[in-house]
Amino acid sequence: MLKINSSIRSLVSRSITTRQLVYEKYGAPQKVIQMKTVELPDKLEPEQVLLEWHASPINPADINQIQGMYGVRPKMPAIAGLEGAARVLKTGSAVKSVKPGDQVISSYEVAENWADYGIFNQKDIIHVDNDLPIEHSAFLKVNPPSAYVMLTDFAKLKKGDWIVQNCGNSAIGKQIIQVARILGFKTFNIIRNRENLGELVKEMKDLGANEVVTEDDLYDKNKKMKLPRVKLALNGVGGKSSLYLANALDQEGCMVTYGGMSRQPTQAPTAPLIFKNISLRGFWLMTWIREQKDDRARQKVYSDLAGWMKSGEIQPTAMVKRSLEDYKDALSEAQNKFDKKQLFFLKK
């Protein structure tokens, strides 16, 4: 069991000063995000928990929320950061769900992860595996469970079945590849052409990708490339790419759209909609969480994922560690370079 050392005991017995990345209006992240230093209250309410954040990444959802283009719009001023991992430092008198030393993530209803410390109601935090390394726990909230749920909830797949996805080189695309491999599914991955294509293809195949092709090859009629017939297609791009994914669906197949990186409308062919009865679904992890009648499904997802991460079956997300002071550069890189995640590494 994790022991709390004397320096932490001293820390939680007095008031705490914390840095926070906040915004008071929506806009370009580099322009509206500011660093502020505030004092947290000395005493906790009975249901409150004091957390020390250890690491928090920058996700596309963070950028969209700061721009005012996300499904959840926080009250202003707001502390940014939708995902991260923290340790419990102190609990209020009525808290039963966690204890000092436990590793937690914030619930899907709250953000406020881009800070050194924070005070949360116990209902707004989720206890995760205490032994899960920070390189995994900091990314546990969004992409891995999204990959898992999309692969298991929208089609009845059996081992050996193919799925197709665009956006295969993204952080969630790589999670999809790994979880699919673990579950026994094969992945056909579509990516954009680039200078380091050979290196990227090798990386994806090392993770478990079965086939990797570029959009250019797929669209080239002279190459006559065919996608496998599938029950499930995962669309994170939209536009022309989504049309090809939908065309790959077999009878009763389903295309799940979870993103729109091209900023173009998702497309679908008419004939398969009529004659194959294919379906087009949207996915947002927040909706899935809200639909669960109890915590058992979510707990199974986290438990399975943590086990695969600890065993090495899921590799750590490629990252660039940043201090909170480097937030402007980190935000810029997060919007222009997509091969590695920008991670605020907060634990000193």
UniProtKB/TrEMBL annotation:
Catalytic activity: a 2,3-saturated acyl-[ACP] + NADP(+) = a (2E)-enoyl-[ACP] + NADPH + H(+)
Any one GO molecular function term: enoyl-[acyl-carrier-protein] reductase (NADPH) activity
Keyword Cell membrane recorded: no
SMART domains: PKS_ER (SM00829)
Pfam families: ADH_N (PF08240), ADH_zinc_N (PF00107)
Primary site of residence: mitochondrion
SUPFAM superfamilies: GroES-like, NAD(P)-binding Rossmann-fold domains
Domain Enoyl reductase (ER) stretches: 27-337
InterPro entries (alphabetical): ADH-like_C (IPR013149), ADH-like_N (IPR013154), ER (IPR020843), GroES-like_sf (IPR011032), Mito_Enoyl-ACP_Reductase (IPR051034), NAD(P)-bd_dom_sf (IPR036291)
Name assigned to this protein: Enoyl-[acyl-carrier-protein] reductase, mitochondrial
